[in-house]
Amino acid sequence: MRMLLRARLDTHTSNAGVKDGSLPRLMEKIVEELKPEAAYFAPLDGGRSCLMVFDMQDSSQIVGIGEKFFQEADAEVELNPVMNLDDLKKGLADFTG
After folding, report:
1. Max Cα separation, the chain?
2. For residues 41 and 76, what is the distance between their CA atoms, to the nearest angstrom?
3. What is the pTM of this model?
4. Which domain of life is it from (predicted)?
């Protein structure tokens, strides 16, 4: 299932990660593992954040994804199922309401 991950990193923890080089390594590791179709990094809600769209094969992946962000970046994490335009068209075509 296509998922949108939004992680807001703790400022103090990510400041340390920028200084010691661990933050770029963490992001590279996560991107390598998730193989997102899109990954963006931006200041959101006043802090460093990342947004990734990726395919989740099994809901058990939530643990591994979340824990990387929780333990290594003291991050707040949201995961939401999302659709692209083709998915929306298919869903609307199948809708019989």
Report:
1. 55
2. 15
3. 0.90
4. Bacteria
